Structure formats: C-alpha cells, structure tokens
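Risk register update: the risk of archive-format incompatibility is retired. Evidence:
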Amino acid sequence: MTDRQAHETNCPCGSGDSLGQCCGRYHAGTAAPSAELLMRSRYSAYVLGLIDYLQATTLPAQQAALDLDGMRHWSLESTWLGLEVGESTVLGGKPEHALVSFTARWHDQSGEHVHQERSAFVQNDGHWYFIDPTVPLKAGRNDPCPCGSGQKFKKCCAAYV
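Archived output:
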C-alpha cells in the first residue's frame, strides 16, 4: 500500500481516521503511546497481514514461541468484519501494565465468528507489548520477570498470564 492509499483508506480499527493517521504510523515504526492504541494497531495488522508487526509487539520473551504460520493463515484467510473496544484500564506500576477489553469479528470458511477478550499489556523502554495468554511465560514466581522490568515475576506480570 502506498502512503497516499494509507492516507485515503479508513483504518481497519474503526477509529474513523485514515490508516495513515491512525494505526499505519505504528505499523511504520512509531511506538503506540497506549495499550489501547497498540491493541487497535494489532487488530489492523491482522486485517492487513502484517505478521512481523504482530510478532514485534508481543512481549519479547514470547516472540520465538508464536505460531507465525498459523497467524498468517488466520490473517489472510479471514474477512475482518470489525473491532469494538470496551474498557481500557491503565493499572500503573513499574513497569506500567494495562488491560484492554475488545470484541473482534471475522468471517472465514467455517462461518462468522466473534471473539471477546480482555488483553494484558506491559510497557517497557517506552514500548507497549501484548502479553499473549496462549504462550506460557517460563519463569518461576521468584525468577526475574520476562518483561525485562528487573522485578520478580510474581510482583510483575504473573497476575496477567
């Protein structure tokens, strides 16, 4: 997609803004300033088949375990029908954590689907990351947290996985 097309195309996240003024800037490398905007940009990435972006915005300790082929197949074989964002709560702390509730709709060869989720996010070094609940974080309660905060896992991300 050209820059011009991105500025003329509505963003798939449903914000009402153009892709270039919304999620496209995050796909191009600008860090999403909030967990909600990261979540919206991840939905848009599924719509656009940007699997590298999905991998890069997942907690780094989980990235190697992602099923990238499965994600690519789901992304490209689905017709994405929309996103509704519910509650977005910044929980604070060091590092900062947040929860975002959303509903995503899509259609594939087996019919129409609705997925509701309350996703967890953590901020590290000025970047928000999705904590993927389908990928186990390999850390004992007293081990350093895999998010890189330097805290013990039990005092950091353990409550969100």
